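Appendix B, record 7
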Amino acid sequence: MRLFKDKKGFLDDQMDFIFMTFLLVVGLVMIGGVLFVSVNDSKEAAIKNVNFVGTTQTHLYYLNSATKLNGVQTTMRDAIVYAFNKNDLALFEAKTKGFFSKYNLEGVVEVYDSNEYNQDRDYKMLFSNRFVSSGETSSVLQLANPTNNNVPLITVVFKKDE
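Structure tokens (predicted):
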């Protein structure tokens, strides 16, 4: 009995130590869980942003790539506007297929009258060379249509597989 006589509050101190150790472990587990979830969310957001930037760059490169239209050197942007105004789906498909084949891409290009795109209506011209899509990233850009007063803007939607 002499062992515990000089140790006043020993049991209280021991229980405080065990309780604080338990709280510290639980707190560290919770902090680790929050950081793990936060890092995973940030990683997914970063991958999504990288895919979006890559798709937008490819979209801009597609619109600015050189092509011949009626024997004249021009850009895909001008070819799309021309095909849209003439309602020439075959010209649009041929030019777009050439670009996708040259750069070995899979995806979809949809061309809308901008007013109809804003109202969720169907596209006017479509090119697709993919069979199954596991995931895609979209880029939407508008083109000025100076030769057609009825449709001053054309919306081009470019969807590329991730």
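Remarks on this record: The mean pLDDT is 83. Residues 63 and 77 are 5 Å apart (CA to CA).
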